[in-house]
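S1.2 Input.
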Amino acid sequence: MRLPPVVVALSVVAGAAGLSGCGDPSPGMSTAPAMSATAEPAPGAPGAPGAAGARGTGRDAHFGPGCGAVPASGPGSFEGMASDPVVTAASHNPVLSRLADAVRKANLVDTLNNAQNITLFAPANSAFEQLPAATIDRMTADPATLARTLTYHAVNRRVAPSELSAGNFASLEGATVSTSGSGQDFKINGNTGVVCGNIQTANATVYIIDAILKPPAG
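S1.3 Output.
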């Protein structure tokens, strides 16, 4: 006996509904939610689970034992700094307040804020505190000498962490800054350590360091 078309259609729909609740899906089909296509960083790499001091992922991964001192939110956080030019970003970060003050005294705020795609090896406040007060006073009393010292900390292009293992980079002061190391342990000019690296600002990549670099005599 031929069934009316409406009955046939209802039977097909009911059968499909019954199959959806039992058995395995057809080959090539899945009822599971879509998974993110973002790959996890390799174990031990900056930003990877278990990497000491690492925060962020990929190009924006921050690494180093001092990264925990950077605020988790607000203008001085990693996210907040990314939207500001480098001196403005540093002035909002409590780890870099003395550097920002020195840059102002050297009349370099506009120079560094307007530079494009630079790298700044930024001495932490603790780096300034290692020096005798008389030395700091002499530095800040001579804007020209202070400017030469600070521009030696700036490289005229963005430097990625992968380039720090064995690098020689021209500073804005003119002399060369050398880097060495591997993993998350890098040195600047042989003995100055990176305490928090690969911080992005609007116009610079920043590596916070534990000492003030001294430009070559000349």
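S1.4 Remarks. Confidence is low (pLDDT under 50) at residues 1-55.
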